[in-house]
Write a structure and sequence with these properties.
The protein has 83 residues and is mainly alpha-helical. The chain has helices at 2-10, 15-35, 51-75. The chain is built from three helices and no strands.
């Protein structure tokens, strides 16, 4: 069963179906945030529907951007660096 799932996910012909499935799951998780009750919120922004998804997305994008910048500026060396 696992082998069949891995073959389905890795197959390039299923790229369109895979995108539809993953985007559907994303929309479902985001929509469920509007349905969930918020009885005890710790901070004011926790009461905003969709805040967790937005904050997580912005955090991931910013982490990727910062480390790509660090990689270009500081971590990568020229080809003849060790020669």
């Amino acid at each position: 069963m696992i082998k069949g799932m891995v073959n389905y996910i890795c197959c390039p012909e299923n790229a369109g179906k895979r995108k539809v499935i993953f985007y559907s799951i994303l929309v479902l998780v985001f929509a469920s945030d509007f349905i969930a009750s918020r009885h005890h919120v710790a901070f004011a922004w926790d009461a905003i529907p969709g805040w967790s998804a937005f904050y997580g997305f912005v955090s991931c994008v910013s982490i990727i951007a910062v480390f790509k910048f660090l990689g270009k500026v500081w971590l990568l060396k020229k080809e003849d660096y060790y020669d």
